[in-house]
Amino acid sequence: MGCDVLIRRVDFGYFVRPGDETTTGAARVEPVLGYLVDHPRGRLLLDTGMGVHPDVDARYRPRRIDLHAALSAVGSRVDDVTVVVNCHLHFDHCGNNPALAGRPIFVQAVELANARGADYTLPELVDARGLVYEEVSGDAEVWPGVTIVPTPGHTSGHQSLIVRRGDGAVVVLAGQSHDTATDFSADALAVRAAHDGQVASVQLPPTWMRRLLELDPKSVYFAHDHAVWLP
């Protein structure tokens, strides 16, 4: 059994993804969502919103909700956050990390190494003064019932958060493992089809997808989609 936890979705605003980054060729408005996990050990924030840079603003036209305002909207404060987890270190997921200096920030080691390379994200977000990284390689238990699992694809160091509630139900905070709940649903169905022997005619999803489904999640939440996947 897990611990009693409360998961609240945090609205950090939205940006406009340009057409050369979408499958349709048309620009698409996407929300930027984080998740606050209220646990007996403390409060964990998955992702921190969008960073600020003239080039980012020109390309993505973001409308940001300030970290203080975003947390206040869900009944919390910046000082209440004790642990940070970034699903990955692109500008729209680690933008307010500098405002949370001193808290442990859990990140896959490969993700941090890549983020310190050229043209990955905004350098001032990665190594801002006072940031304390907890580098992990693979699974990592943050608190009882709260576990990080690697879900590479969007980036090689992408990770998701598994939360097991007190009633035993599993919730997956999938970050950008998939852009949308529909994309996740397609991969879930592909796993089912492969189990039925349709391997030759089905594009197989990442191997970690089967692992997530074997946890029997009751809901899956995403960083850029308000929709929620339900079994």
Query: What radius of gyration results from the CA coordinates?
Result: 17 Å
Largest beta sheet: strand ordering:
4-1-2-3-5-6-7
Quick check: average pLDDT? Answer: 95
Which stretches of 5+ consecutive residues score pLDDT under 50? none
Number of helices: 6
Q: Largest sheet, described in full?
A: 7 strands, mixed
- Give the overall shape: globular
Our estimate of the beta-strand percent is 25-35%
Order of helices and strands: EEEHEHEEHHEEEEEHHE
Question: Can you describe this structure in just a few lines?
Answer:
Helices cover 20% and strands 30% of the residues. It is an alpha/beta fold. Strand 8 (140-143) and strand 9 (146-150) form a beta hairpin.
Folded structure, characterized:
The protein is α/β, with parallel strands linked by helices and 231 residues long. The protein has a single domain, classed as Metallo-beta-lactamase, Chain A. The chain has 6 helices and 12 strands. The strands form 2 sheets. A 7-stranded mixed sheet has the order 4-1-2-3-5-6-7. It has a 5-stranded mixed sheet with strand order 8-9-10-11-12, with helices on one face. The mean pLDDT is 95.
Architecture blueprint of SSEs:
Elements: E1 6-17, E2 28-39, E3 42-46, H1 54-60, E4 63-64, H2 67-72, E5 81-85, E6 104-108, H3 109-115, H4 123-126, E7 132-136, E8 140-143, E9 146-150, E10 159-164, E11 170-173, H5 181-195, H6 207-214, E12 217-221
Parallel strand pairs: 3-5, 5-6, 6-7, 11-12
Antiparallel strand pairs: 1-2, 1-4, 2-3, 8-9, 9-10, 10-11
